[in-house]
Structure prediction request, 170 residues.
Amino acid sequence: MRIQRPYANPYWCGAALGLVLLGAYALAGRGLGASGAFASGASALAGAASPEGAAANAYFAGYLASGGPANDWLVFEIFGVVIGGLASAWLSGRFRIAMDRGPAAAPRLRLAAAAAGGAIMGLGAVLARGCTSGQALTGGALLSLGSWLFMAALFVAGFAAAQMLKRLWR
Prediction:
């Protein structure tokens, strides 16, 4: 087993993330986020299953008109996040296949809770017209009041949910 290296300095990483966000504005004319990539992929699946239905849907039609996932730079951003995360874990000696859960949470319960939480966050991203990362990074950088309120609500909701679910981790 490889020796684990310490985590990166969060202040340097935050500054680097800010420079990446600035680069995204300068090069692509928009900020960072993840939900657009998933929406682009969903529109491609909807277009493959029912071209007429997807074209008639205003939400999917916009993504299909831009050329689909192959022309959406956010799709490539997501691939870069996955590859970068794997490379970082490997290089730091922290790569492992595991499921973090408390002793009171069975693996199926943990997977079901993760899937349900992901689905709720995805629905929220569609309703909010942006994902958590887009709201925090892009909206926060633009000083959008809605994004700052969203982040405050996210932390309050996360704290409340943690209090309700902490018994599963004991």
